[in-house]
Amino acid sequence: MVYNQIKQVLPHFRFEGYYVSAEELHSGNINNTYHLQYRKNGVPMHYLLQNVNTYVFHDPYAVMENIEKITDHLRRKYLAGGVDPTRRVLEIIPTIDGRTMHKNGGYWRAYRYIENATAYDRVMRPKQFEEAGRAFGEFQRMLCDFPAGELHTTIPDFHNTTKRFYAFVRAVSEDKAGRVRALEPEIEFMFEHRRAMGTIVRELERGVLPLRVTHNDTKINNVMIDNDTDKAVCVIDLDTVMPGSALYDYGDAIRFGASTAAEDEEDTSKIALDMEKFKLFTRGFLSQVDGFLTPHEIELLPLGMRVITCELAMRFLTDYIEGDLYFKVKSPTHNLIRARAQMALLEDMERKADEVQAFIDGRNK
């Protein structure tokens, strides 16, 4: 039973009312997440409880410090603008002793559940993806005055594609899981894209691109969409909020949401860049970031799409080679299937590069 997995943890948080039920959610790749229902004076009270994956996040307290700073800043900005932040910003449920996290056979944290809203794993209606673009653009706009240097780097070199390539090469050399022999085309693909993958890293190091507060996991299922209006309500899953480039946030959202197939589609002939979805998200995103992103950043948004897609393909392939240590997998070849899917998507992005750039340039005039 789910309850048996979490019963020792529940009394340590300031949940209101009495416990009714718990359901494990399986949409995330990293943390174990539970939807809790309590009841207070006959009224249902909903919460999220999470067990933080310490293989991925070596310092959970640094993660929570970042989240606390970001949510406090967003809440103040919304209030200053006359906007009720109740459903717009994640609300941390403190522990009984007033902390943001409880340690008990792992590291646990809790949030208030956002009612009457859904995090979709894929775009159900076109308007939702434009709203997701607006939400992630607004997230960056609201944080453009937050000093990025005050944030912890929760995953060192998360988007440092140069270092990730070296890690990939090391994994190939060590071949710990004995899987390299059958991967010659995939390995060659990564070597062919090596230089292009490092472009954003190099421009950040040179100061050509500004360092910003970025989300770093901008999938559509990290935006809560109101069930009644289809409007974006809140950006969630803030574990990877760190200093970074806006190009990564934009690129990852397109990579995930504007693909014609699932992230783990085995039939690569079904995988392509959906140009209509690309345009929808881009309209929403640019409606919020025009005015604070530099012209050079906006010009390079298509590069973000390609770099982040190649980076994730390499991460999936690296994890497969190392024996599936990072991402949750549903089968022994799940990470390899994911890698091939991202490679197919990147190839279609490259075919449509001129059309993509023309749309970005046209919207930026």
Low-confidence stretches: none
Gross morphology is globular
Query: How many separate helices?
Result: 13
Distance between the amino and carboxyl termini: 57 Å
Radius of gyration: 20 Å
The biggest beta sheet reads:
6 strands, antiparallel
Give the full name of the CATH homologous superfamily of the largest domain.
Answer: Aminoglycoside phosphotransferase (APH), C-terminal lobe
CATH architecture of the largest domain: Alpha-Beta Complex
Order of helices and strands: HEEEHEEEEHHHHHEEEEHHHHHH
Report on the architecture of this protein.
Strands 1, 2, 3, 4, 5 and 6 form a six-stranded antiparallel sheet that branches. 39% of the residues are buried. The protein has helices at residues 2-6, 60-80, 126-142, 161-174, 184-192, 194-197, 199-206, 246-257, 275-289, 295-299, 301-322, 334-351, 353-363; strands spanning 18-25, 32-40, 43-52, 92-93, 102-103, 107-112, 117-118, 212-214, 223-226, 232-235, 242-244. The radius of gyration is 20 Å and the shape is globular. It folds into two domains: 2-115, Phosphorylase Kinase, domain 1; 126-363, Aminoglycoside 3'-phosphotransferase, Chain: A, domain 2 (Alpha-Beta Complex). Helix 4 runs parallel beside helix 11 (301-322), helix 9 (275-289) runs parallel beside helix 13 (353-363) and helix 11 runs antiparallel to helix 12 (334-351). With 365 residues, it is α+β, with helices and mostly antiparallel strands.
Topology readout:
Layout (H helix, E strand, L loop, with lengths): L1 H5 L11 E8 L6 E9 L2 E10 L7 H21 L11 E2 L8 E2 L3 E6 L4 E2 L7 H17 L18 H14 L9 H9 L1 H4 L1 H8 L5 E3 L8 E4 L5 E4 L6 E3 L1 H12 L17 H15 L5 H5 L1 H22 L11 H18 L1 H11 L2
Antiparallel strand pairs: 1-2, 2-3, 3-6, 4-6, 5-6, 7-9, 8-11, 9-10
Helix pairs in contact: 3-8, 3-9, 4-11, 8-9, 8-11, 9-13, 11-12
